[in-house]
Each structure stands twice: as C-alpha cells, then as structure tokens.
Design brief:
By secondary structure, the chain is mainly α. Helices cover 76% and strands 0% of the residues. The chain is elongated. The termini are far apart.
Length: 179
C-alpha cells in the first residue's frame, strides 16, 4: 500500500494525533481483556487504572480535535495493533498465572513506551505549530502514561523479586498474600 506523502508539519501533526487516538481506542478493548486475565492483584489494579486513564485520554483527545477543528477519524496505529495481536495470541495459548502475567506486563510496558514517545512527538509539534491551548491536555495524557509506566515497572520488579523468593508476587498491597 502506497502512503500519501505528508505535505506539512501540520499534516504530520494531524496524522500523529489520529494515530494515537486510534491506538487509545484499540487499548480500551485490549486492556479490558488484560484486566480480566491478570492474576496478580497489583497487576490487575495497574491495568484497570490504565484502562480508566485511557478512557480519559480519549476524552481529552476529543477536546483537542474539537479545538483544532479536525475529526479524529482516519487514523491507524499498526504498531499498537501488532502488539495487541501478539498479546491476544498469548492470552489464547497460556493458562492463568505468573507466565501469563509476565506476558501482560510486557505488552503493557511496550504499549506504554510507544504512547509516551507518541505523546512527546505530538506535544513538540503542537508547540511548534502554536497550539498552546491543547498542549496542556496532551501533557496531561503524557504524565498519566509516564506514571503508569512507573507503576508497571514497580509491579514487574515485585514479580521478579517474588520469583527470587524476596517478595510476594500475589501480594495484595497490605503485606499479606492474596488468596
């Protein structure tokens, strides 16, 4: 498939915005399934928080599109779609437990890193184009993505510690092992 050439920085900005909008929409469906599949309470809670934030991200992106007088339709995000497909394949082939949880956290972290990079690029273009009114909305999404990545990194560390006998992988956050 031949891609249409981008004629301006603004066209690139709109394409990137539509791409992240499409990615956030895909993530709502994927994160819903991931929350259900996660066994570790910390991971389940982290994915549920990410799902809730993703709903907010879409609402803020709707405000951004409204502010710049463009529609969000038409975006594609093949990178996120591929990661989601890979994760869904794992969901079908693995049983519940630590192996599946590690697949889920890996997928969530890959997706989060992509979103962080995408939002940074979009914010840079919005600033360059003088769209100051929307930068704060985009930065809010970015900050939530960065915080989510921080939490997922901590959950992964807890999972690794439990594997080495230094922590309780199924901890419920109170110091007690979840039943």
């Amino acid at each position: 498939m031949m891609m249409k050439k981008i004629a301006s920085i603004e066209a690139q900005f709109i394409r990137n915005l539509r791409s992240i909008y499409h990615a956030e929409g895909l993530l709502i469906l994927a994160l819903t399934r991931m929350v259900v599949a996660a066994e570790a309470p910390y991971l389940r809670a982290g994915l549920a928080r990410h799902l809730e934030q993703t709903h907010h991200h879409l609402r803020r992106l709707d405000l951004v599109f409204n502010e710049i007088h463009h529609l969000p339709a038409g975006g594609e995000c093949p990178d996120i779609a591929a990661t989601i497909t890979e994760t869904e394949r794992g969901l079908r082939s693995l049983t519940y437990g630590p192996t599946l949880d590690r697949l889920l956290i890996g997928a969530a972290r890959k997706i989060g890193c992509y979103e962080i990079a995408a939002y940074r690029v979009i914010i840079a273009r919005a600033t360059e184009l003088g769209y100051g009114a929307i930068v704060a909305l985009l930065e809010w999404n970015l900050q939530e993505e960065e915080l989510c990545e921080y939490h997922l990194r901590n959950v992964e560390a807890e999972m690794n510690n439990s594997r080495e006998g230094r922590g309780s992988y199924l901890s419920n956050g109170t110091g007690a092992v979840a039943s």
